[in-house]
């Protein structure tokens, strides 16, 4: 496995974990376990940041004048990263809605 493949797989692996944890956090929130949901979202964010660091390294490499070889694998990695970002944002909003809908009424 060459450097580009390894970087692509590192991105895919990290953002895949982030997506899985974000989905798990939504399931926890649906059950009312908000503390566990928040914990999993924080962990998901760590994985997402790791994926971004790998991607940033590629951008810096190309910016320094080194040619970054485009591949279907890299395109897949970037697609997964963008999808995970979107999913995580939506899940954060859904958890906020769960909290708001399940807040005890003062009436």
UniProtKB/TrEMBL annotation:
Designated name of the protein: PTS cellobiose transporter subunit IIA
GO molecular function, one term: metal ion binding
Keyword line: Magnesium, Metal-binding, Phosphotransferase system, Sugar transport, Transferase, Transport
Domain of life, per lineage: Bacteria
CC cofactor: Mg(2+)
Active site: 76
Note on cofactor: Binds 1 Mg(2+) ion per trimer.
UniProt modified residues of type Phosphohistidine: 76
Gene Ontology BP, a term: phosphoenolpyruvate-dependent sugar phosphotransferase system
Binding-site list for Mg(2+): 79
Matching Pfam families: PTS_IIA
Keyword Magnesium: yes
